[in-house]
Structures are given as structure tokens and as C-alpha cells.
Predict the structure of 3-dehydroquinate dehydratase.
Amino acid sequence: MRLAILHGPNLNRLGERDPAKYGVATLDDITRDVDATAARLDVTALHFQSNHEGALTEWVQDRQPAIDGYVVNPAGLASYGYAWLDALFDTGRPFAVVHISQWHAHDGKDRTDVFAAHAAVYLAGAGWRGYSLALDALVHRLREP
């Protein structure tokens, strides 16, 4: 089983960007944690990060037949990343959404995540370890009859 772990805008700056909100773990730390979880679950994790919605959309489209499911952190694209969401939806594969923080409560603004209604798994506020938790939950959903 091959699962894609996709990171949206600014997640390349984890560990440097607002540690009070996002913690001190880097994207490399998350990758190592996810890879350890993937090994425990006997699945392969492929990782990709981009600050550009088009690059994320093309990554999904180019690899569609070879991926069984996705763990995505839409980050700043959560409220309006329809092109990326459409690409994920078009795969027919389940996906999990991860947000490191309670993003919907940032700055007291009312935020909507356009990915939420289509997610097989949705996890917000579990910190950087939320990626591995979401991967575990998604793999279990994929393996259930």
C-alpha cells in the first residue's frame, strides 16, 4: 500500500515559523515520524511539499494510479484550495486531512475548510504527531472490509 503525505504552503518553514502555534518540529522531523509509522503499518509513504497549489495538484494527478490514499495538510489552502481538492476527489481514493494547530480558531476568525466534507479522516490540533495519527487511521480504514 502506498500513501502520499502532502504538505501545503509554508509547512517547509515548520520549526522556525511561530513555534508557539506550530511547535518546534521541522518537516524533516515529521517525515521521520511518518516513515516510522508507515514501517510499523507495513506501508510506503511518499512525501511532497509545495507552496503552490498547482504543484500539489499536478503531483496528485501525475501519480494518481499508484497511490492508495493521501494524508494532506492543506495549510493556507484549506479555505480555498479547490483545484487541489478536485484533484484529490478525482482520484477516488480516500484522504485524511491534518492540521497541526486548531487552525479554525486562529485569530478569532471563522474559517471553513473546504477539504473537510470529503475527508475520510479529519484531525486538527494534535500537533506535528497528528500526521502519524492520521496515517494510522487512514490505513485502518483502507484495510477494513
In short: Helices lie at 19-22, 27-41, 53-63, 82-91, 130-143. The first strand starts at residue 2 and ends at 7.
